[in-house]
Amino acid sequence: MQTGILFARLVALVLDNVSLYASAVREIAERERAQALLQESEVRFRQIVENASDIIYRTDIKGRFTYANPAALNMMGFKSEEEVLGKSYLDLTTPEARHKLKRTYDRQALGRIKNTYYEFPAVTMNGEIIWVGQNVQLIMEGDRIIGFQALARNITQLRQAQEALLLARDQALEASRFKSQLVSRVSHELRTPLGGILGFAELLQHETFGPLTERQNDAITNIVESANYLTDTVNDLLDQAQVESKSISLHNAYFDLSDLIEKISTNMSVLADKKGLEFHTEIDSNLPAELYGDENRLQQIIVNLAGNAIKFTRQGSVRVRIAASAPARWSLEVRDTGVGIPEEERINIFEPFRQLSNSITRENRGSGLGLAIVKQLVELMGGEISLQSEVGQGSTFTVTLPLIHAPGE
Ligand code: ADP
């Protein structure tokens, strides 16, 4: 009986040890498998980092390199990682950039800023300067910062392209300034002799120097028309050059709106009559009798729009309507029953020298500057211009302007 119990205990002991042994073996196998997986993943990540074309490196908290991938070594001209380990990142920049570079990363560490982007010049082992753009993150161990890791890229070509673009832009601006100055000077010089030609031609036309034959009269009429056209073009060129160079300024004062419309109406009605068109003007009674603004420039805007409306209308009417609009704004609307402007041309016609390629445009002489000047003047006044049109039905140009009060009121 005793032997039986003993035997049973012995069997239990052996069985216990066997299961203990089995679980130990299992644990070892699992640990080995975990280690193998870890190694595999480390190899995978190492491969990514080592084959990356971007620069990847790490430093300790003092900025001394602890790792640099082959792309980094290659870009900087190091033969092996050992050459760079222990060196400070500050040794690899220009003396001028060093202070700012240090401040950037001191600030990142102090402010515990997770990620920064910074561009700086790096000096390679053979003395070449290259521009580097880098994202830098803090390496943390719990709460403690133990270093920096960076993902960087050689951006020299990008910077060169950006610099070339800036230079090209500056040169284009300079050329445009020069062109505006030239146009402005030439137009000024042309205006004086043109005034003389027109003045004397008109004296001849009015027979101040003696009676004219019919042929002489025809010739003088031609000279006056051409001189008038040339004067208008020169004035447009001068205005365009001035708005472009922003040297135009407004001369605001109070003016009587009905006086202004009356003046415009007298001249425009003559032109409309010649073409058998009706010409109407209308002022909204809700508007104050006196407005504050640059009367001459407003006249120029209305004359340009109404002049176009008459030019590009073969039959029907042209209407100018001045009205109060949305709070503290007023609008002037020029509506015609003319040829209309196709949709695809509506933005372009406000650009200098743009004209439509229809027959009515070819029949009428024009510089293609009127609408460009109108738009820029309207914008200078703080307003906007819009256009509704239907081909064959007519066009409506609407200018909306702020109702302004004299300064100090
Ligand atoms: P210009 O009248 O000297 O040609 P603008 O800048 O005033 O120059 O006008 C540009 C072009 O827009 C005109 O040549 C014409 O083709 C078109 N246009 C302007 N106003 C009208 C209008 N009311 N109706 C139809 N076409 C117009």
Distance between the termini: 124 Å
SS content category:
alpha+beta
Bound molecules: adenosine-5'-diphosphate
H/E element sequence:
HEEHHHEEEHHEHEEHEEHHEE
In the sheet with the most strands, the strands line up as: 2-1-5-4-3
The total of helices stands at: 10
| Strand tally | 12
- How many structural domains can be distinguished in the coordinates? 4
Radius of gyration: 41 Å
Shape: elongated
Assign the CATH class of the largest domain. Answer: Alpha Beta
Instruction: Give a quick account of the main beta sheet: strands, pairing sense, barrel closure.
Output: 5 strands, antiparallel
Strand-residue fraction? 15-25%
Task: Describe the secondary-structure layout.
Blueprint: H1 2-51, E1 55-60, E2 65-68, H2 70-76, H3 81-84, H4 95-110, E3 115-123, E4 129-141, E5 144-154, H5 156-205, H6 214-244, E6 253-256, H7 257-274, E7 278-283, E8 290-293, H8 295-311, E9 317-325, E10 329-336, H9 359-363, H10 370-380, E11 384-390, E12 394-402
Parallel strand pairs: 7-9
Antiparallel strand pairs: 1-2, 1-5, 3-4, 4-5, 6-8, 9-10, 10-12, 11-12
Helix pairs in contact: 5-6, 6-10, 7-8, 8-10
The structure holds adenosine-5'-diphosphate (ADP).
Adenosine-5'-diphosphate is lined by residues 308-309, 312, 336, 338-339, 341, 349, 354-356, 361, 366-372, 395.
Task: Characterise the protein shown here.
By secondary structure, the chain is α+β, with helices and mostly antiparallel strands. It folds into four domains: about 1-50; about 50-155, Beta-Lactamase, CATH 3.30.450.20; about 160-245, Orthogonal Bundle (Helix Hairpins), CATH 1.10.287.130; about 255-400, Heat Shock Protein 90 (2-Layer Sandwich), CATH 3.30.565.10. It has helices at about 1-50, 70-75, 80-85, 95-110, 155-205, 215-245, 255-275, 295-310, 360-365, 370-380, and strands at about 55-60, 65-70, 115-125, 130-140, 145-155, 255, 280-285, 290-295, 315-325, 330-335, 385-390, 395-400. The strands form three sheets. A five-stranded antiparallel beta sheet has the order 2-1-5-4-3, sandwiched between helices. Strands 7-9-10-12-11 form a five-stranded mixed beta sheet, covered by helices on one side. Strands 6-8 form a two-stranded antiparallel sheet. Strand 9 (about 315-325) and strand 10 (about 330-335) form a beta hairpin. The longest helix has about 50 residues, at about 1-50. The radius of gyration is 41 Å and the shape is elongated. The mean pLDDT is about 90. Adenosine-5'-diphosphate binds near residues 361, 366, 369 and 395.
